[in-house]
């Protein structure tokens, strides 16, 4: 048997360090056994999936040195490797389940589902809806079907009992079937949910081992049941510990930069980031901190993974990156790293139009364009003293802008302008007044190149990181204040 592992990211945003972390361990496990590593794109979310996000995933994983044997860009015998191109396969398998009595068409409306859940909640029951809860009277079922009302395909699940799942790291896991709902397998638009697509694809692509985050433990019973329904052997499961913030909460972009693009833009070396991700919950036999990807693959043993939540410590990563810069790069290597990082033609050609018309001597370029080549601006609360706005209103403006930018799928100036104009209207501010604090947060100065062009150039990750940094400089947002702001933001 050839060991085959996979990573299956969704192209719905910036490439997440958690994706790279799971990809790294899947790659190392496959290589340890002389096996193959596959990249599959889970783009069934038609609204949020973008080709730009997919390309960022491919670019960022390759930047980290993580190469795959099969995938959407390299091909392979088990394609297509984008789920959006496999719709007929999922429909066929969903129909097989319906015909075998393992799945059913559910015509329930969203209002009816909400009502059913409220009834169960009031009765002190699990909110998981079972096939019996969802069943309509035969005549009503026939009417809705006859009238062509929208429906989803749901799987049959047991009402009670215990599901036993074996995990490579955790041993035997028991889950109460009472907490497992009649999972949607095929949505009303004909696209599969993760659960159906993941099981079908893993089987058809001959995946032997599934290494994924521990957040999927509660879904394991559904997946195991689907394998039984289809009569297939299930891959061995291994649920990796989640990356954590220093306060032990799940790693999130609201507390830590989570995009690989951020670390690339900040000037971290790819080998240092890969090394650090390898140290997340795993250690070399000799416990050394610094090791290459090749050394990790050569010494990899999944049993050395610790189940304690690994803390993603930015200070520790920064320290390790400094070690690489000092120990691994001579002068020529350092120069090449600088040129690859930011002093390259591709990046500079975007910056030059911003500075050429604003300088009289070449020595004017460095101070004018410094924010294109730096990390967090050296700002204080006093930096905003000339902005005619109360501190609380400043924080609200910057926080709302962060939230608006989190939903931007195509990071271009025109798209950013739409979000800024919407907030200008909400705050009843003219564009210049609205952008004044944004200008300081992004450039660290009250006079520089266009802040709208600047945000488009430095990218989504760095833009949001600088806005969050400015919020912290201004005193941050308390939990109480956050709830109030979120409520107001939802009403926009």
UniProtKB/TrEMBL annotation:
Location of motif 'HIGH' region in this chain is: 9-19
Residue numbers covered by motif 'KMSKS' region: 250-254
Name the Gene Ontology molecular function terms of this record.
Answer: ATP binding; glutamate-tRNA ligase activity; tRNA binding; zinc ion binding
GO CC aspect terms? cytosol
Which class of enzymes does this protein belong to? ligase
HAMAP family, per database record: Glu_tRNA_synth_type1
What chemistry does it catalyse, as a reaction equation? tRNA(Glu) + L-glutamate + ATP = L-glutamyl-tRNA(Glu) + AMP + diphosphate
Q: What is this protein called?
A: Glutamate--tRNA ligase
Q: Which Pfam families match?
A: Anticodon_2 (PF19269), tRNA-synt_1c (PF00749)
**Which EC number(s) does UniProt give?**
6.1.1.17
Indicate the family of this protein: Belongs to the class-I aminoacyl-tRNA synthetase family. Glutamate--tRNA ligase type 1 subfamily.
**Species classification:** Bacteria, Pseudomonadati, Pseudomonadota, Gammaproteobacteria, Oceanospirillales
Provide the protein's localization: Cytoplasm
Biological process annotations from GO: glutamyl-tRNA aminoacylation
């Amino acid at each position: 048997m050839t060991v085959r592992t996979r990573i299956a990211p969704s192209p719905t945003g910036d490439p997440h360090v958690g994706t790279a972390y799971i990809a790294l361990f899947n790659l190392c496990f496959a290589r340890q056994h002389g096996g193959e590593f596959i990249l599959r794109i889970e783009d069934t979310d038609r609204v949020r999936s973008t080709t730009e996000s997919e390309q960022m995933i491919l670019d960022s994983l390759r930047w980290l040195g993580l190469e795959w044997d099969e995938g959407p860009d390299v091909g392979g015998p088990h394609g297509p490797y984008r789920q959006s191109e496999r719709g007929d396969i999922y429909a066929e398998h969903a129909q097989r389940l319906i015909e075998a009595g393992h799945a059913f068409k559910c015509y329930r409306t969203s209002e009816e589902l909400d009502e059913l859940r409220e009834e169960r909640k009031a009765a002190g029951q699990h909110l998981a809806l079972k096939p019996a809860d969802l069943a309509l009277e035969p005549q009503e079922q026939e009417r809705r079907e006859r009238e062509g009302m929208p429906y989803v395909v749901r799987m049959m699940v047991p009402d009670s009992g215990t599901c036993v799942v074996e995990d490579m790291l955790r041993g035997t896991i028991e889950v109460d079937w009472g907490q497992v709902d009649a999972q949607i397998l095929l949505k009303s638009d004909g696209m599969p949910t993760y659960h159906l697509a993941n099981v079908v694809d893993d089987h058809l692509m001959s995946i032997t081992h599934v290494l994924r985050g521990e957040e999927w433990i509660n879904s394991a019973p559904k997946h195991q049941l689907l394998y039984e329904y289809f009569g297939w052997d299930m891959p061995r499961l291994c649920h990796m510990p989640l990356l954590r913030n220093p306060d032990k909460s799940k790693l999130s972009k609201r507390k830590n930069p989570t995009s690989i693009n951020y670390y690339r833009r900040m000037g971290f070396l790819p080998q240092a980031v890969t090394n650090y991700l390898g140290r997340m919950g795993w250690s070399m036999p000799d416990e050394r901190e610094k090791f290459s990807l090749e050394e990790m693959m050569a010494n990899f043993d999944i049993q050395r993974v610790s189940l304690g939540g690994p803390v993603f410590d930015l200070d520790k990563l920064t320290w390790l990156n400094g070690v690489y810069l000092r120990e691994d790069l001579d002068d020529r290597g350092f120069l090449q790293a600088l040129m690859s990082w930011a002093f390259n033609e591709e990046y500079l050609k975007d910056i030059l139009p911003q500075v050429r018309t604003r300088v009289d001597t070449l020595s004017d370029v460095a101070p004018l364009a410094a924010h294109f080549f730096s990390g967090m601006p050296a700002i204080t609360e006093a930096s905003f003293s000339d902005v005619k706005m109360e501190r609380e209103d400043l924080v609200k403006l910057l926080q709302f802008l962060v939230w608006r930018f989190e939903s931007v799928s195509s990071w271009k100036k025109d798209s950013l302008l739409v979000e800024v104009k919407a907030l200008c209207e909400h705050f009843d501010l003219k564009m210049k007044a609205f952008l004044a604090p944004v200008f300081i947060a992004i450039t660290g100065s009250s006079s520089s190149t266009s802040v709208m062009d600047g945000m488009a150039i430095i990218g989504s990750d760095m833009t949001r990181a600088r806005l969050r940094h400015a919020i912290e400089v201004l005193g941050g947002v308390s939990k109480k204040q956050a709830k109030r702001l979120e409520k107001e933001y939802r009403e926009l």
